[in-house]
Amino acid sequence: MISSKAIRGIADYFNLYKKIEQGIEDGKIQSEKIIKIAILSSFTTKGLKETLFVKCWGLGISSLFYIGEYNQYSQEILNKNSGLYKFDPDLIIIFIDIKTIMGEHFFLPYQISDEQRKEWVNENLKEIQSLIQKIKKGSSAKILLHNFEIPLYSPLGILENKQKFGFIESVEALNVSLRDVFKADTQVFIFNYDSFCSRIGKQKIIDYKMYYLGDMKMDLQYIPELCSEYLAYIKPLTSITKKCIVLDLDNTLWGGIIGEDGLEGIKIGPTPEGRPFLEFQKYLLSLFNRGVILTINSKNNLEDALEVFQEHPHMLLKEEHFATMKINWKDKISNMKTIAEEINIGLDSLVYIDDDKLNREMIRDSLPEVLVVDLPEDPSLYLKALMEINDFNTFQITEEDKRKGQTYVEQRKRQDIQKFATDITKYLKKLELVVTIEKPDPFNIPRISQLTQKTNQFTLTTIRYLEEEVKQFARSDNFLVVSIKVEDKFGDNGITGVAIVEKGANKWRIDTFLLSCRVIGRRVEETLLAYILEMAKKEKANILIGEFIPTKKNIPAKDFYKNNGFKLVERKDDKTEIWEYNLRKDYKFPDFIKVINR
Amino acid sequence: MVNLKEIVSCVFNIDIAKVNNELSRNNTEEWDSFNHLLLISEIEKEMKVKFTISEVEQIKTFKELREIIASKKD
């Protein structure tokens, strides 16, 4: 590429875009994940596609775009045969700017009365709602709808706030209504563009010269920032979600070095130098409460470190918040691998936070799947760096998520019995397993979708489904959707298994069969299979077909069909295996599991 | 600081050797109306200068661009 290193502006993104596109075309590079993004806007958004493409590529996602005609968004949405629907997007971004939607009223807001302004808000709200309803009929894509930038100036100046229903108030009211009407809608997300403008600075977001010359409603230079915020939605859509933070201790969780400075010497607590670490811990705790797993990877004497957690009066995070603590003198790379193994998640689910630049480089080099945060040198900026991570997003937080921290403590206790139990069946018997079989309903559908999105290990086909798609399966007579809830004497694991089965007249086919990593190895999957076999028999099918699509990660599911009485009948393109179960055969699942059919 | 030729070469994605006084909107396909604005935006950001709207409209060649920037730096 030509002098792309020379400048770091938006032009670089255009060049990188061309270069990557060429590479893909020549077959030199490729990526496993693909996302289709449609952008509908009220003005020319040149640069958005190119920048977003490059940013997605940086995450290993290849993106395809549909860019709606300039200010034709209504027509595209209303016409069932429009390019928008033919494109079949996964994500639709709708970016309508305040000047367009307000028209003349933007400059002459007080030509109309307070009442008319109220009317204006209602009309626009209704119009937007009806457009969104139309999209939902024709597409199951997630919809990212921009709200509106609240203007900085009013012709009434200091009297603006004295109006019965003022100009600025009307835009605020529209934003509030938009947020409220879509609150319960799982397909629509409001993108807080007003808040984005504030973050950049409303005086900087528009370059008036460019606005008059090229109708640019936003300064080109901020497009990369906007795209970074879109990534917060694209990551969960493509199942790129981080689950666990791995923390260093000295100069990361507290200031100073415990081994040298001692318990009294380290900085944590209500002093100017201690507060950055305290607030950093507070935010970590709030992430823990939303379901992010916390762990430690530190080179230290275990006793020294534990003393801080147990004795220091200002330590907010305690041992009980960490799923595992690797505090030892082993190298950080093998500690990192052990952490992933112990909590049973992939290395690509980890975020590593360490103040030491060399450690960060080492992890980045040897474990590129791990997201390494570039912690600023000054601890007063740690909190900001932590808040800016947008990799923990999911489209819903289920009850299972909120309990996750607790779940790992229970898991540790189970592992303790496992150490004493000599054989696995004895151990499983001691667990007093209860499996509840559930049909899909509005409460478990978000979790079912989430499991298809997040499960990588015990999954036979690794097909990802959005909530809307699961709903369609659940409504259809041709599909059986079933989930299982797993409890034992230590606690409730929640919904941790899912199957989606296509019903044919004679042959049924397992489309999706998965188990959350939390319950792998307890033979609960056999109760799920038994239920499917029973239903298939009841509806007079003869054969149950199962497919196994191997990936890098689903080795735990590899022998599931083999071990459960299926026969291998075909191997497609050296990869996908097709297995069959003859329904005349009897099937037995372990008798130590109690099954409840709901 | 990045020099003007480098910025022009990057924005138009052309070899830096081709960036000379003769380069103009008439003889350079890459110098279209969008790239013109992109160029102005990048120069303003990198070289800490500001153009007026009329200057942006007037600039047709690399020579003119250089001269206007030089006059601002005096």
Structure report:
The complex is a heterodimer of chains A (598) and B (74). Chain A has 598 residues and is of the alpha/beta class. Chain A is 41% helix and 19% strand. In chain A, helix 2 (48-58) crosses helix 11 (223-237), helix 12 packs parallel to helix 14 and helix 21 (445-454) packs across helix 22. The termini of chain A are far apart. The model of chain A is unreliable at 1-7 (pLDDT under 50). Chain B has helices spanning 4-12, 33-47, 53-58, 62-73. The mean pLDDT of chain B is 93. Classes of the chains: A alpha/beta (598), B mainly alpha (74). The interface between A and B is medium-sized, with 25 and 24 residues.
DSSP helical segment count of chain A: 24
User: In this structure, how is the largest beta sheet of chain B organized?
Assistant: none
Average pLDDT for all residues of chain B: 93
User: Helical region count of chain B?
Assistant: 4
| Through-space gap between termini of chain B | 17 Å
CATH class of the largest domain in chain A: Alpha Beta
CATH architecture of chain B: Orthogonal Bundle
| CATH-scheme architecture of the largest domain in chain A | 3-Layer(aba) Sandwich
Rg from Cα of chain B: 11 Å
- The structure class of chain B reads mainly alpha
Beta percentage of chain A is 15-25%
What's the oligomerization state?
heterodimer
Silhouette of chain B: globular
Helix content of chain A: 40-55%
